Amino acid sequence: MEPVISPEKPSVKERSEERVGSGFRPEEMARCQRKTWDVLYQLRDRLAPGMSEAEATAIYLELQRAAGAEKYWHPPKIRFGKNTLCAFRDPSDPEVRLQDTDVFFLDIGPIFDGYEGDCGQTFFVGDTNSPRGEAARRVIAKCEEIFALVKARFREGRTNGPKLYAYAEELAVAAGYELVGDGANGHRVSEFPHAAYFRGPLRGFARVPALNRWILEIQVRDRKNNIGAFFEELV
């Protein structure tokens, strides 16, 4: 899935939970997101079987600095193999290394020019025709499909956060997967720190959300094959 980032302004009246600073510029938010995706894809291309998540994190920090992000607003979540089942706050098994045929996802949140970037995507390395490869392709494709359907409903501007995630759960269950409800619930972004305006999840936001304020997150688990998939971006 290619990320689509809209520079348009919110279509609803400003609310306290969706405030931004007086100097906030949607086009700068979009630019930050593009730079964040660039770093994520650079990281993807640097990973190789045999690496640990700690080694991948060190590479990410190098790439972040080289791209001009002095710091991040949330630490990177880099998950290999069975660790892709983990929720955001779950600790990874540090012994897990990327295998020759494996699934992994990346979730990064650098700060560029005072704006919070945030994106995440799942990838597969190795033999796509193997049983694990076929399972990985299915769960990754379904995760991105669910994201696209929920994003479309979000952008219609008539559905609140709980209903958006109820819809996502329906789609995941219908596909035979489990929607992760701990951590991957969507959240605000803005100039750093968005927590000065609102800390809560999109999943619990009872109003219809505005554009260019929220990160939509979808994470699903395939318990049968012991793998998961994750996708997030600004909507």
Outline the fold blueprint:
Elements: H1 26-46, H2 53-66, E1 72-80, E2 102-112, E3 115-116, E4 119-125, H3 131-156, H4 161-174, E5 178-179, E6 187-188, E7 214-222, E8 227-234
Antiparallel strand pairs: 1-2, 2-3, 2-4, 5-7, 6-7, 7-8
Helix pairs in contact: 1-2, 3-4
Protein described:
It is a single chain. This protein has 235 residues and is of the alpha+beta class. It has one domain: Creatinase/methionine aminopeptidase superfamily (Creatine Amidinohydrolase). The protein is built from four helices and eight strands, in the order ααββββααββββ. Strands 1, 2, 3 and 4 form a four-stranded antiparallel beta sheet that branches. A hairpin with a 2-residue loop joins strand 2 and strand 3. Helix 1 crosses helix 2 and helix 3 packs antiparallel against helix 4. The longest helix has 26 residues. The protein starts with 25 loop residues before the first helix and ends with a strand. About 4% of the residues have low confidence.
